[in-house]
Amino acid sequence: MGPEPExxxxxxxxxxRTQGHRFLLIGRQAVVLYGAPVFSFDYDLWFxxxxxxxxxxxxxxxxxxxxxxxxxxxxxxxxxYSGGDRLDLFFVRALVNREGTELTFEDAWSRGExxxxxxxxIRIPAIDDLITLKKMAATPRPKDEEDIRYLQVLKDLRSRxxxxxxxxxx
Length: 170
Fold this sequence. Notes:
This protein is of the alpha+beta class. The protein has six helices and nine strands, in the order αβαβαβββββαββαα.
């Protein structure tokens, strides 16, 4: 048996979009697309619940990925592993952060924006929604607090017409 294949987010994103699945890149990778000079080695993606079975079945059956929960198990978050790659997939209608703010997938999707990530486009939440999502951990984490500060400064700059509005430089 050979090594597990590496996950190519661009190929996955293109396939899922072709199949009509909507999803948002959330977490630190989304902050990176807003231009933050930080690193993250996993991808967090938020799907509406109805995408669960087809997305997870493809990852498990077609690509041979290891899943933390079967496609028909009702867990809201599934970790996907292949080689050294990891995806954290969220299949929920809404999330509530530690401040009690609820964010629905539909609202985050409607306010989100497309960003270029290499050779593909991917949708990320609007800055305010990403800040809400960065407050999901029960207790504040230093990297989330750093990301929130960056996003708030970017939001303030944009409100004054000073911040970058287009894709960050490659």
